[in-house]
Amino acid sequence: MQLYGGTGSGHSFKVRSFLLLADIPHVYHWVDLDLPRHARRPDFLMASKFGEVPVLMDDGHAMCQSNAILMYLARKTGQYGGHADEWQTVLEWLCWESNRIGFSVPNLRYAKRWEPQPVDVETYLQNRAQADLSALDKALSQQAFLLPSGLTIADLSCSAYLFWLHEAGLTLADYPHVERWLHAIRQLPGWAHPDEALLPTA
Ligand SMILES: N[C@@H](CCC(=O)N[C@@H](CS)C(=O)NCC(=O)O)C(=O)O
């Protein structure tokens, strides 16, 4: 397998962390997201339907959209998909992520770190991120991971941007169950922080 990803991209990190934790041999191709879209590496331009990272190449097929890729990997490898009767709940979390924590936290981080937004916009994003973190904290107060059986792609998806939460101006101490959950994920064999996992490889 080959993965195209970029520095600072939590969407890329979801897939990279799956491959690292599951110990799946793959080649990581770093894409320079600071370049204008048309100037990015030609193999990536060919493979990327929407011009975004991540893109996973497997058996000659190019796949995009991080949560769809996670579903593909879980089904293909039999890892991190949870029990069969948990699959519907896994999908619920993936859909929730794309519209909630995967929207609020990355956009707030982007505003705080790279491109300041009008105060009203930042307030909107901050309120939304806080609500999303509270929802996660509540779910995680009941069990160690989002699904009873243990780590699944729901956890990899929902946690991806939270390893940079401080860059969004928020503090994990306000969400103790989320903090404990992220700590547990960090301890898993093969896990690497996104700042390291998404760097160009030699
Ligand atoms: N919905 C997509 C979002 C992917 C996305 O937003 N990728 C960003 C990096 S995090 C990107 O490629 N940005 C560069 C660009 O749009 O030019 C997914 O889940 O994979």
Description:
- The chain is of the alpha+beta class and 202 residues long.
- Helices cover 50% and strands 8% of the residues.
- It contains nine helices and four strands; from the N terminus they run βαβαββααααααα.
- The protein has helices spanning 10-21, 42-47, 66-77, 87-99, 101-113, 119-140, 153-159, 176-186, 194-197; strands spanning 2-5, 27-30, 55-58, 61-64.
- Strand 1 (2-5), helix 1 and strand 2 form a beta-alpha-beta unit.
- Helix 5 packs across helix 6 (119-140).
- The two termini are 17 Å apart.
- The model has no long low-confidence stretch (mean pLDDT 97).
- Glutathione is lined by residues 6, 9, 11, 33, 37, 51-54, 65-67.
- Residues 6, 9, 11, 33, 37, 51-54, 65-67 line the site of glutathione (GSH).
Tell me the name of the CATH class of the largest domain. Answer: Mainly Alpha
Structure annotation, total helices:
9
Shape: globular
Identify the strand order in the major beta sheet. Answer: 2-1-3-4
Q: Write the H/E string, N to C.
A: EHEHEEHHHHHHH
Distance between the termini: 17 Å
Largest sheet descriptor? 4 strands, mixed
Helix and strand layout, with pairings?
Elements: E1 2-5, H1 10-21, E2 27-30, H2 42-47, E3 55-58, E4 61-64, H3 66-77, H4 87-99, H5 101-113, H6 119-140, H7 153-159, H8 176-186, H9 194-197
Parallel strand pairs: 1-2
Antiparallel strand pairs: 1-3, 3-4
Helix pairs in contact: 1-3, 1-7, 4-5, 4-7, 5-6, 6-8
Bound molecules: glutathione (GSH).
